[in-house]
Write a structure and sequence with these properties.
Length: 73
């Protein structure tokens, strides 16, 4: 178990792993920069539907889109 982490999809304290996957992101100016995607593997909600995406937080999405358009993401 991962201890301090809880699953962002179901809220359970049953995470088996938090994977840090390197990637890149391109902002509005075309600048690419490195990012790390955190993927959780949960014993509670992954067995029936592994990697089921969480519900989108529309406020966070809008804020990130605004930052991307300003070139500050
Ligand atoms: Zn879960």
């Amino acid at each position: 178990m991962t201890g301090e982490w809880t699953c962002h999809r179901c809220g359970a304290d049953t995470l088996l792993a938090v994977l840090h996957v390197p990637g890149t992101w391109t902002n509005a100016t075309g600048t690419r920069f490195p990012v790390v995607h955190k993927l959780v593997v949960c014993a509670a909600c992954d067995p029936a539907g592994p990697r089921t995406p969480a519900a989108v937080d529309e406020d966070v999405l809008a804020a990130e889109a605004d930052a991307w358009h300003r070139g500050t993401l």
